[in-house]
């Protein structure tokens, strides 16, 4: 049998792969074509005219490869296929593969989930080997729910085999982004900024590190996250350097036309020169990352469009280069147009030291039906097919209320806080559910004490005290008559056990591990009592 040989180069242009084929080779994507025998590069070029990525299968799995081509040249790229791709090699025609993450561009995935507001060029949809960055200003020790979409979109780039870059604004945080703000941000001292940057760096790293690559574009094979601080390159730039190297390329008319500037100029307080120049600082960040690290996509909320395009404009003017793109996603809003991410207690923080996983979980569990499906698409990585199925389930007569909310809360809590944080939230939820059969212990109750009202009482004040008196003493309810009415209605609980007897007194056996009690007035009003 005659042996044929083909040599192809990898993406780095240095390593040549040699193939010797003694049998037919199958090239397949949307359909299967059999070549007898396959040894002409012309055949590859013809096949690739219809498909940029091909699968070269061979009976020996070690000789099975993924072949792709650059959209801008006639260059062929090669990567060894995964074991999953070669588990059942066959020369027989196979059915067309079902649509999957592998066959979709990251922008296509984001669009079908409602995560794209605008892009600077349609060419982005055909680009491979992307490095996408999102900036986070250190205005607090933690990111909040408004930053969550940025982390989700970065994760989608990462899941599709691209490189995700999180940029902490150690420098720009000293100025403050005016986008979406009605007044100038309060100035933070250097020590606070440094502390905030370190905390956000740790938080972002922990969130993005949990997301593993699920599908890889040919030639990538990377599971990469870079976390940078723009103070590292701004600290050595003088004002004269900035005016000479950047300022002379900026047109004041263009800067004035940015939406973030126009809104502030018409406000009562106006806009300071410092804030006015912010768009150039962020624009230079993109230029620096593009020039020095190959970062070619900047993502941000829709209010960042002006800052992002400032960057693409600087790259074109200063570097005279193309290939820098911007992508914005919608702000996280409820169906009524109000911001999603604010509660009565303030911002919904992502750092567990500022908001417990339990409270974070509960916030998503309380999402109304009208918003829950949209949030599943935006904030989770469930497939569109799974989400559509859940939407249909909600319309069925036997649907149990809040079933889909529970899935949303679990998925988002797992993404932000990991499996351990999710389990903490689920355990606390169960512990705080009146009538729950879960056996309570002091550690569980102490764990939720920071999330519900609590007080400390002496042991001798609690022991033998009537439950009605104790409820009033702790401030859980205002009067004994109100407690009696609730008790008669079946809404008073001690350690999740419903109490029906007015004469109930606290016994030593009621005090969990001799340390705590949990009172519940209805489903929502709780009180943790620490016993001294």
Automatic annotation (TrEMBL):
Record keyword Aminoacyl-tRNA synthetase present: yes
Molecular functions per Gene Ontology: ATP binding; RNA binding; tyrosine-tRNA ligase activity
CDD domains registered for this protein in UniProt: S4, TyrRS_core
Keywords attached to this entry: Aminoacyl-tRNA synthetase, ATP-binding, Ligase, Mitochondrion, Nucleotide-binding, Protein biosynthesis, RNA-binding, Transit peptide
Catalytic reaction equation(s): tRNA(Tyr) + L-tyrosine + ATP = L-tyrosyl-tRNA(Tyr) + AMP + diphosphate + H(+)
Enzyme Commission no: 6.1.1.1
Residue ranges annotated for the Tyrosine--tRNA ligase SYY-like C-terminal domain, each copy included: 445-527
Domain of life: Eukaryota
Subcellular localization: Mitochondrion
Record function comment: Catalyzes the attachment of tyrosine to tRNA(Tyr) in a two-step reaction: tyrosine is first activated by ATP to form Tyr-AMP and then transferred to the acceptor end of tRNA(Tyr).
Name of the molecule in the record: Tyrosine--tRNA ligase
């Amino acid at each position: 049998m005659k042996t044929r040989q083909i040599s192809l180069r990898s993406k780095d242009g240095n390593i040549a792969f040699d193939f010797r084929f003694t049998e037919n080779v199958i090239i397949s994507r949307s359909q299967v074509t059999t070549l007898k025998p396959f040894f002409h590069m012309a055949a590859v070029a013809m096949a690739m005219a219809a498909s940029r990525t091909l699968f070269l299968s061979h009976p020996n799995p070690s000789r099975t490869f993924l072949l792709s081509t650059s959209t801008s040249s006639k260059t062929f790229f090669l990567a060894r296929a995964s074991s999953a791709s070669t588990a059942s090699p066959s020369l027989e025609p196979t059915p067309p593969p079902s649509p999957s993450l592998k066959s979709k561009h990251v922008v296509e995935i984001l669009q079908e989930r409602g995560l794209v507001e605008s892009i600077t060029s349609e060419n982005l949809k055909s680009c491979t080997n992307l490095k996408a960055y999102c900036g986070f200003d250190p205005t607090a020790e933690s990111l909040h729910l408004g930053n969550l979409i940025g982390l989700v979109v970065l994760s989608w780039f990462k899941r599709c085999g691209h490189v995700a870059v999180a940029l902490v604004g150690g420098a720009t945080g000293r100025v403050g982004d005016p986008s979406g703000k009605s007044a100038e941000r309060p100035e933070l001292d250097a020590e606070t900024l440094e502390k905030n940057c370190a905390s956000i760096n740790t938080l972002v790293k922990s969130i993005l590190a949990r997301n593993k690559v699920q599908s890889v574009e040919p030639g990538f094979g990377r599971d990469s996250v870079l976390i940078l601080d723009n103070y590292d390159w701004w600290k050595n730039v003088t004002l004269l350097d900035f005016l000479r190297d950047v300022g002379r390329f900026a047109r004041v008319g263009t800067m004035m036309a940015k939406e973030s500037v126009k809104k502030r100029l018409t406000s009562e307080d106006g806009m300071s020169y410092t804030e006015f120049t912010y768009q150039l600082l962020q624009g230079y960040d993109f230029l620096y990352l593009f020039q020095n690290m190959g970062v070619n996509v900047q993502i941000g909320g829709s209010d960042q469009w002006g800052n992002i395009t400032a960057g693409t404009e600087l790259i074109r003017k200063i570097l005279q280069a193309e290939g820098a793109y911007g992508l914005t996603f919608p702000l996280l809003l409820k169906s009524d147009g109000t911001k999603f991410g604010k509660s009565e207690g303030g911002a919904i923080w992502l750092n567990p030291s500022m908001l417990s996983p339990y409270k974070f979980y509960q916030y998503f569990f309380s999402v109304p039906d009208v918003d829950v499906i949209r949030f599943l698409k935006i904030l989770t990585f469930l497939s569109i097919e799974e989400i559509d199925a859940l939407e249909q389930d909600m319309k069925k007569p036997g649907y149990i209320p809040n079933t889909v909310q529970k899935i949303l809360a679990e998925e988002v809590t797992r993404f932000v806080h990991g499996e351990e944080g999710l389990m903490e939230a689920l355990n606390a939820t169960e512990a705080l559910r009146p009538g729950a059969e879960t056996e309570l212990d002091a550690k569980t109750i102490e764990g939720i004490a920071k999330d519900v009202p609590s007080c400390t009482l002496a042991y001798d004040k609690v022991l033998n005290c009537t439950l009605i008196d104790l409820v009033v003493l702790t401030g859980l309810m205002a009067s004994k008559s109100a407690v009696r009415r609730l008790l008669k209605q079946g809404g008073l609980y001690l350690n999740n056990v419903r109490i029906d007897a007015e004469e109930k007194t606290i016994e030593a056996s009621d005090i969990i591990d001799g340390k705590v009690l949990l009172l519940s007035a209805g489903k929502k009003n709780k009180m943790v009592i620490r016993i001294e």
